[in-house]
């Protein structure tokens, strides 16, 4: 009679076949955090004072432990976090997690009915009598403190991770390129997030990345946390005075509620991407766009493939780069606008942002940090500013053997970051109003990305 092995014997056999396991080998663990990032009434949103909160804004993320010092990934429903705002945010989260600031990434989702954070520009404006416009540093500091406390708690309360999941899903009828070129190769139309002109709306979709990337962490059969990445401006309509996370945040919240798993969403390289082809600004379109993004998230969830993961499969590399400053930024004219009390408020605010960036670049002691997270066969690039989608597509082309995702809108200080050719094509995104860098920025960033992906 054939003897059937006992369960205990099968377990011993499995351990033997899998090789020796060191008791000292660290395990991969994930801690999750989320705090409310909604402003109080009267605090400035990007363009208007807050009159209420339509849907709460969130500051959420994960802490990865087990491979060197902890790694913190954070996404916040704000329009942008730049200069000392970004640096102080990262410092606070690093201290809370027991790591260094270069192992912390803070990215905004870039919603427009949401706050901005830039302590450096806010301080410069305050020195010239401009306060409580564009920035509320006291409120921002409160959110940073709440987030740091939540990170400390997440670092102390972690879940073991046994498997990594990767998947992607196409999002239909959301993204379209904002820059519609004419026959002369110049920008003929800028197709903003809400476009009512049918001629502009009906132009071809243009260059986009239609795929939503998803990375998930699992403990056995249970999902622990989900990270998603999709490139588009997130506006359906704005200037309501009501803080809200717009359609990407709504999609994230819906999928989190449906799956019961924390979802952290990052905006990809969406500087020249928006929903303008599919959106005329009608209020009902917000839910339509949210449903389409959520459908793409569901596709990525259902397409997810899981593989075993260990702490040794995690890595974090950084490249510090000096971005070339736009030649249109000149200290003396900017200083005059800033000091002119009769100048329009937005002009003085823009002058302060430009002057801060110019001084930072001229000093040369405060570079932009590009980071790459390695998770098995997946790579996540952490990038600054309102990056053009071509950078994301080029990174994926550079390593077709890997699952490459990108989070942009890190340090918001540079503004829009176009490709070199785009600066000669005209259009808003590469204009002196919008971009603080020179065309040579493409070579600098592409070089850093290629080196990180090569490692």
What is this structure's SSE topology?
Blueprint: H1 7-18, E1 29-36, E2 52-53, E3 58-66, E4 68-76, E5 80-81, H2 84-97, E6 104-108, E7 116-117, H3 119-127, H4 137-156, E8 159-160, E9 163-170, E10 176-177, E11 179-181, E12 187-190, H5 198-201, E13 211-219, E14 222-230, E15 242-243, H6 246-259, E16 263-267, E17 273-274, H7 284-302, E18 305-308, E19 314-321, H8 331-339, H9 345-363, E20 368-375, E21 378-382, E22 386-387, H10 389-398, E23 403-407, E24 416-417, H11 441-454
Parallel strand pairs: 2-15, 4-6, 5-7, 14-16, 21-23, 22-24
Antiparallel strand pairs: 1-3, 1-8, 3-4, 9-13, 9-18, 10-17, 11-12, 13-14, 19-20, 20-21
**End-to-end CA span:** 56 Å
Average pLDDT over all residues: 94
Dominant shape: globular
What would you call the structural class? alpha/beta
Strand order of the largest sheet: 6-4-3-1-8
Number of domains: 1
Biggest sheet record = 5 strands, mixed
| DSSP helix fraction | 25-40%
Number of strands: 24
Low-confidence parts, pLDDT < 50 over ≥5 residues? Answer: 1-23
- Give the C-alpha Rg: 23 Å
How much of the polypeptide forms β-strand, as a percent range? 25-35%
- How many helices in DSSP terms? 11
Protein name: Neutral/alkaline non-lysosomal ceramidase
Keywords: Signal
Organism: Rosistilla oblonga
Signal peptide: 1-23
């Amino acid at each position: 009679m054939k003897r059937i092995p006992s369960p205990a014997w099968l377990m011993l056999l499995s351990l033997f076949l899998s090789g020796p396991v060191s008791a000292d080998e660290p395990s991969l663990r994930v801690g999750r955090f989320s705090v409310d990032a909604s402003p109080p009434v009267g605090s400035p949103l990007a363009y208007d004072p807050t009159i209420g909160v339509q849907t709460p804004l969130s500051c959420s993320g994960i802490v990865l432990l087990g491979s060197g010092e902890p790694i913190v990934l954070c996404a916040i429903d704000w329009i942008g976090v730049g200069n000392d705002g970004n640096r102080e945010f990262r410092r606070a989260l690093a201290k809370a997690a027991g790591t260094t600031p270069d192992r912390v990434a803070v990215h905004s989702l870039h919603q427009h009915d949401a706050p901005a954070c830039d302590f450096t520009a806010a301080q410069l404006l305050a020195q010239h009598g401009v306060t409580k416009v564009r920035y509320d540093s006291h409120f921002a500091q409160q959110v940073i403190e709440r987030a740091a406390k939540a990170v400390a708690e997440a670092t102390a309360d972690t879940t073991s991770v046994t498997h990594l999941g990767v998947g992607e899903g196409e999002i239909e009828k959301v993204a379209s390129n904002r820059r519609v070129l004419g026959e002369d190769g110049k920008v003929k139309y800028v197709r903003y997030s809400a476009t009512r002109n049918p001629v502009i709306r009906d132009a071809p979709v243009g260059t986009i990345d239609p795929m939503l990337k998803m990375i998930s962490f699992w403990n056995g059969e249970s999902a622990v946390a989900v990270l998603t990445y999709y490139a588009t401006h997130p506006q359906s309509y704005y200037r309501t005075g009501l803080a809200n996370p717009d359609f990407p945040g709504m999609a994230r919240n819906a999928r989190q509620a449906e799956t019961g798993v924390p979802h952290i969403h990052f905006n990809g390289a969406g500087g020249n991407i928006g929903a303008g082809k599919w959106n005329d600004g009608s209020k009902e379109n917000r839910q339509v766009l949210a449903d389409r993004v959520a459908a793409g998230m569901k596709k990525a969830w259902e397409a997810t493939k899981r593989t075993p993961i260990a702490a040794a499969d995690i890595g974090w590399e950084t490249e510090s780069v000096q971005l070339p400053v736009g030649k249109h930024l000149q200290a003396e004219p900017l200083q005059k606008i800033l000091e002119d009390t009769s100048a329009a408020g937005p002009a003085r605010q823009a002058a302060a942002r430009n002057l801060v960036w110019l001084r930072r670049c001229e000093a040369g002691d405060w570079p932009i940090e590009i980071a790459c997270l390695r998770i098995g066969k997946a790579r996540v690039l952490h990038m600054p500013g309102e990056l053009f989608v071509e950078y994301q597509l080029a990174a994926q082309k550079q390593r077709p053997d890997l699952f490459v995702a990108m989070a942009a809108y890190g340090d918001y200080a540079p503004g829009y970051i176009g490709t070199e050719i785009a600066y000669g094509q005209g259009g808003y995104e590469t204009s002196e109003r919008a971009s603080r860098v020179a065309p040579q920025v493409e070579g600098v960033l592409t070089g850093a990305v290629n080196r990180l992906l090569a490692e």
